[in-house]
Amino acid sequence: MVVLWSLGAGDRGFSGTGDRISIEMLPEGEYRLTATIRRDGREVRLLEEAVRPSELRGAVIRLPIGRLALRIMWDDGTPFEGQATVAGETRRIVNGRVEFELLPFGAYNITVRGLGDIEVLRTEVAHGGAEETVRISSASIVVRVSDMLGRPIEGARVSIQSQKIPGVLATATTGPDGAARFTKIPTALAPFIATATYGGRTEEKLTGPGEASITIPAVAIGGTLIDAVIVFATIGLIAAVIAVLATAGVLSRRRKA
Questions:
Q1: Whole-number mean pLDDT of the chain?
Q2: Residue 127 is assigned to a structural domain of this protein
Q3: Domain count, the chain
C-alpha cells in the first residue's frame, strides 16, 4: 500500500510517496501535513494536521492504519469456524481468528458465515489497531418426538432450519428418550423450524430456543409405524366385536332365564 504525503504552506508545497519525508531546509513556520492512500480507486485521507519543520526533524509519524485482527467466538468462549467478510474481502476463520490487510482505523461492517455459507451475524466493529472480539450468540434446542400415544420415538431424524434463510442448520437422531439435542445454533436466525422424519412420515413445528415437541400421528410398534386411521379402525372394530359379544351374552342370559 503506497502512502502519498504532502507538506505545504501558502504557495509553497512539497509532496512524495513512501514511508519517509525528506525535504531540504525549510523556513520555520506552520505547514499543513497530509497523508493519503488509494483504496478501491479512491483516495482515503489518513492524516491532516498543522506541523512546524522543527517538530518533524527525526519524528516518527504513526498513521491510523493497521491490520484488522478479529477473534470470533461462540458466547461460551469456544472458537467459531467459518468465514468473515469486511470491506468486500472474505477470509476464512481459523480457530476463531481472522486477519484482514491494512485498513484505516474506523468502523467497519462485518458479516460472519458458518458451515454451508449460512449468514449467522452482521454487525459493526471498531478498528483501532487492537484485536477485536466478536461473539456469536447461540441457542440450545431440544426436540422431543413421540407417537400419538405419547410414547417417545427412537431413531427419528430431526433437522433445524431458520425461517430467515434457506438451508438446514443442523441434523440429529432421537435417542431412547425420543429427544434430539442441538447446541450452537445462532440465536440471530430464530425462529426455527424443527422437522422430524420417521417411518416415511414427516412432521414439523415452529420453535425458538428451548424445547419443542413433535407428535407423529401414528403408533410406533417395534420400530414400525401404524397409521392413525388403521389404529382407530382397529379400535373401532375391537369395540364393535366387544359390543356384539356383550349383546350376545345378554341375549343368551335372557333365553336361559
A1: 83
A2: yes
A3: 3
Domain membership flag for residue 239: no
Q: What is the domain extent for residue 10? A: 3-56
Give the span between the Cα atoms of 87 and 50, in whole angstroms: 30
pLDDT in tens, 197-206: 998 899 999 9
**pLDDT, position 225:** 66
> Has residue 158 been placed in a domain?
yes
Cell of 72: 470470533
pLDDT digits (tens, 9 = 90+) for 228-255: 555 555 555 565 556 555 665 555 555 5
User: Contacts by 34-43 with C-beta closer than 8 Å and gap 24+?
Assistant: 34/5, 34/6, 35/3, 35/4, 35/5, 35/61, 35/63, 36/3, 36/4, 36/5, 37/1, 37/2, 37/3, 37/4, 37/65, 37/104, 38/2, 38/4, 39/1, 39/104, 40/88, 43/4
pTM: predicted TM-score of the whole model, two decimal places: 0.64
- Secondary structure (H, E, C), 57-114: CCCCCCCCEEEEEEEEEECCCCECCEEEEECCEEEEEECCEEEEEEEECEEEEEEEEC
**CA gap 113, 67 in Å, rounded:** 21
CATH code, domain with 210: 2.60.40.1120
Inside any domain, residue 254: no
CATH assignment at residue 94:
2.60.40.2070
